[in-house]
């Protein structure tokens, strides 16, 4: 699972029109490893769609390189505007799913799935066999003869996914594939992507603006802002990164200090520490009243990961020993608020100290 399948290196994309320039990608380095589901999140305009369109060279990067499955697509693209044969062949190994499905309304479901195979010159019988197999895979065998207009949004997206898989791609790119769908349909489409990822070993790079999508299916994630990747890593790595915005959004553990003489501490539990009764041990050993301000517990790949925000009576310096105890238990401990009068002075590890105000 460690082989990189998609690598972008210092990828830049500048859109130029007569009177202005927009830097949509400003030096993006991204590594997606084989067999993972990788989510890219960020606000509108952050450059997510530009990034995914540059990964399959639908959009030509201004500079930088894109490698997919060991091939440098930017080198294949050359300078001409018409994609040379080598690039077209490489693209066949990259499936793409779109927000608005992009199905042809005049074709049946089966013919939509067959379309990329027609373009690749696959004989009719082989196309039909492959389309039937793919429709079975996405749970739509009974809809082969219907037209897109007769399908629900979720069914249309399943057709879109089947079509994206027709060329037996190694990589599936998805740009907001579920954002036009209701929450329940979203869940079922995400589950399908997860199943395909597991069954076929498909690597999935998906763009979303919904944190729930990342939470539901992603092994790794990156946060984009203003054309740059500002955070990236596996979900577990992100959770272990002090001050990670993605971790905060994935596991929001809100809650404010109840008064001035209080210390607010964010705890992250991994592996074994997730199942030990650390908080009750803390309360018993040091005879402190621990208040839980917020908590979130999730299971990733069968391992529990949790975050908790607790409040201890007294200022930071009154709590040095209990905080040391928590660290000794193998927890990651971030002091979120070190007593109002002492912020930034008393805390011994300023890098880990951050204001709680939002
Ligand atoms: N074809 C284009 N010509 C000029 N500017 C563009 C073009 N496509 C995108 N941009 C600009 O590039 C920036 C990044 O756009 P992009 O579509 O990649 O954002 P996004 O993160 O996908 O946003 P959203 O969440 O709204 O889909 C934006 O400022 C956008 O206006
Ligand atoms: Mg977009």
TrEMBL record:
GO molecular function, one term: ATP hydrolysis activity
Keywords attached to this entry: Amino-acid transport, ATP-binding, Cell membrane, Membrane, Nucleotide-binding, Translocase, Transport
Single Gene Ontology BP annotation: amino acid transport
CDD domains: ABC_MetN_methionine_transporter
The keyword Flavoprotein appears for this protein: no
Signal peptide segment: none
SUPFAM superfamilies assigned: ACT-like, P-loop containing nucleoside triphosphate hydrolases
GO-annotated cellular components: plasma membrane
InterPro entries associated with the record: AAA+_ATPase, ABC_transporter-like_ATP-bd, ABC_transporter-like_CS, ACT-like_dom_sf, MetN_ABC, MetN_ABC_transporter-like, NIL_domain, P-loop_NTPase
Pfam family, one: ABC_tran
PROSITE patterns for this protein: ABC_TRANSPORTER_1, ABC_TRANSPORTER_2
Domain annotation ABC transporter: ranges: 6-251
Keyword Translocase part of the UniProt annotation: yes
Family: Belongs to the ABC transporter superfamily.
Subunit field text: Homodimer. Forms a membrane-associated complex with FtsX.
Described function: Part of the ABC transporter FtsEX involved in cellular division. Has ATPase activity.
Protein name: Methionine ABC transporter (ATP-binding protein)
The organism of origin for this protein: Actinacidiphila bryophytorum
């Amino acid at each position: 699972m460690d082989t990189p399948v998609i690598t972008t290196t210092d990828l830049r994309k500048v859109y130029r029109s007569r009177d202005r320039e927009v830097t949509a990608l400003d030096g993006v380095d991204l590594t997606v490893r084989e067999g993972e589901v990788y989510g890219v999140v960020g606000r509108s305009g952050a450059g997510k769609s530009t990034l995914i369109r540059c990964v399959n060279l639908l959009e030509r990067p201004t500079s930088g390189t894109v490698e997919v499955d060991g091939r440098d697509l930017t080198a294949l693209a050359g300078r001409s505007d018409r994609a040379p044969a080598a690039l077209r062949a490489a693209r066949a190994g990259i499936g793409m799913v779109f927000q608005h499905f992009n199905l042809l309304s005049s074709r049946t479901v089966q013919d939509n799935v067959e379309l990329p195979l027609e373009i690749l010159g696959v004989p009719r019988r082989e196309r039909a066999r492959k389309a039937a197999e793919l429709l079975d895979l996405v749970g739509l065998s009974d809809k082969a003869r219907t037209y897109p207009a007769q399908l629900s949004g979720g069914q249309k997206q399943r057709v879109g996914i089947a079509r994206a898989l027709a060329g037996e791609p190694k990589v599936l790119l998805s740009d907001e594939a579920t954002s036009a769908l209701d929450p329940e349909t979203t869940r079922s489409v995400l589950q399908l992507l997860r199943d395909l990822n597991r069954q076929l070993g498909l690597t999935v790079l998906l763009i979303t603006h919904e944190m729930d999508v990342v939470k539901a299916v992603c092994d790794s994630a990156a946060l984009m802002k203003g054309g740059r990747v500002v955070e990236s890593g596996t979900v577990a790595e992100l959770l272990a990164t002090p001050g990670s915005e993605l971790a905060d959004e994935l596991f929001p553990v809100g809650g404010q200090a109840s008064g001035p003489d209080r210390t607010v501490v964010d705890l992250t539990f991994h592996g074994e520490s997730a199942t030990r009764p650390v908080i009750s041990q803390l309360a018993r050993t040091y005879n402190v009243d621990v208040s839980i301000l917020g908590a979130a517990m999730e299971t990733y790949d069968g391992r529990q990961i949790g975050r908790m925000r607790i409040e201890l009576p007294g200022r930071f310096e009154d709590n040095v020993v209990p905080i040391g105890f928590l660290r000794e238990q193998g927890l990651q401990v971030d002091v979120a608020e070190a007593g109002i009068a002492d912020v930034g002075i008393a805390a011994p590890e300023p890098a880990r100290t951050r204001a709680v105000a939002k």
